[in-house]
Structures are given as C-alpha cells and as structure tokens.
Amino acid sequence: MLGQDLLAVLAAVPGVQVTGATRADLDITRPEAVAAAVGDYDIVVNAAGWTDVDGAETPEGEAAAAAVNAAGVHNLAAACGARSALLLHVSSDYVFDGSATMPYPEHARTGPLNAYGRTKLLGEQAVTGLLPSRGYVVRTAWLYGEHGKNFPATMLRLAAERPTIDVVQDQRGQPTWSLQLAGKLAELGRAALRGDAPAGIYHGTASGATTWFGLARAVLGLSGLDPERIRPTTSTAYVRAARRPRYSVLGHDSWARAGLAPLPDWRSGVEEALRRPAFQALQPGRLQPAEQR
Fold it and tell me: Residue 283 phi/psi, 5° resolution?
C-alpha cells in the first residue's frame, strides 16, 4: 500500500532514480541479499513489515514477525551503515501502550501491548542504535490507501450490504492517507540529504484526531450516504487475540526541527482518498463539495 504510493511520488521527482523491491525481489531477513540490494543508493526506505497483529500473538507468529520487523530491519540498518546510506524506516504507534491522554511526543516512553508492537520496537532500536546519525524512524498509525485493504473501503463495502454498521468509539487515533505519508517521506529524504533534518524519530500521522466511529461517519457522509447508519459500540464487542492501544494520537514536534510541516488534518486525507478511482467505484452516492456539507 505505502510502497506503491512511494514509487509514484518519487518517480515524479526530477533526477531521482527509484527502485522498488517486492518480497519476491528481496527477502530482508537475508543479510547478504540486503547488502547487495542497498548497493550504492543514497537512501533506503523500508516500507516492509509483518502486519498480522493477531497472528503474531502465538510463539511461532511472534518469531515470524520478529524475523521481518526486528532482524530484517537490523539487516537493513547494518547494510546502510556499511554503505553510508540513509535509512528511512516506517514504524508504528503500537510501540506505545495507549494509556496517554495527550499526544505522544517522539521521545515518550514506549511500552507495547502486544507481540507485534514488541517486534516493531526492536526494529526501531536497531535503526537508532546502528545509525545514530543516518537513521530515521517514522511512526505511522491508522494507515489506509487505495492499494490495499483499508478501513474506509471496508466501510463503503459494508454500507452496500447492511442498513447499519457498528463501529468502536473507544479507540482514538489519527487516520493517515498513505499517499500523503509517501509525500512526507519524500520531503524528509530530501531534507536529510541536504543535512537539514536531524536523524531520529518522527511521527508520520495526520494532524487532529478522531475515533473509528468518527472516521466511519466521515467516510459515509463524504460519499453521499447517511452517517447516522454508523452506530457506536465498544472494543469489548470485538474480541481479538492482540490488545490494541486505546489512544494512538502522536505529536509532531520533530518536523519543526527539520524545517518541515506535519501532515495536514486527517479529514483532508479522507476527502482526497475518496476522490480516487478505487474509492469512487465503491461509492453509490456522490462525493459532495465542501461548501455543500
């Protein structure tokens, strides 16, 4: 999802040579393959990750997740260090426990609730430990895009099948449009090459915050459907193997130090996404101009 958006954004930058590697092209759990792939590139962006959060809760699942999210990232960081390349690594809000009531700053204490979060934290530590001056960790959350399974598309599909949809309202976060995040990663990479962006941790999430319930209502309303069809419920209605953070709102102070603006409000991302063909095809209504809402 994010990888395809990155390729599209970077391909539009004049003078930039971009190579995208799928899982079939590159297994990041193999150090020798990673070293060969890094080659002479100036920047490596790691959008790969084991994302089966519930599947990682078994011992076997956690080991498989760690192979990609921890050992694989270690391989990338080591290869970048050997070639003096910059590494932009995409991480997750799941490194936090969700007990905060104010946005998490980049330096906040971590404390994952689940195995997936533990493996993502190990990956972060590999980047900051091996590449203190050339490693960039960009945490994102509630990511959706037109090239993969995502929450807005699911809501539109369910709206075509059911009169009402129950959505949890006790989890709060920042819905983040993957195309906007791709653009911000490209900006960060250029700033890093210029020496303007200090290495370290950045939060690549949309500004503002809402709940899954609020996001679902926005998706339906912007698609010309009745948002009242979305009904509130709690997380207890959906028993899952892995615990989820209740609060995933991240602060954005690091962008100012890099001379860059944070991502815009989450609503702008939803509006932009719903105008893309992949989402338009799911909308029985019409996306309404802002002045008509």
Answer: -100, 115
Residues designated as active site = 116
Query: What's the rounded mean pLDDT across residues 228-235?
Result: 96
Domain that holds residue 237: 2-292
Give the span between the Cα atoms of 267 and 113, in whole angstroms. Answer: 28
Residue 121 corresponds to which amino acid? L
Domain count of the fold of the chain: 1
Other beta carbons less than 10 A from residue 101's beta carbon: 7
CA distance 263 to 65: 28
Amino acid type, 136: Y
CATH number where 274 lies:
3.40.50.720
* Residue 215: pLDDT over 90: yes
Query: Is residue 31 pLDDT above 80, yes or no?
Result: yes
The Cα 38–Cα 67 span in angstroms is 19
In the predicted structure, residue 287 carries a pLDDT above the cut 50: no
How far is Cα 279 from Cα 293, in angstroms, rounded to an integer? 19
Task: Report helix angle 151-161 to 212-222, nearest 10.
Answer: 60
**Residues in the chain, total:** 293
Using the structure block, give the residue that is written with the tokens 């070293």. Answer: 35
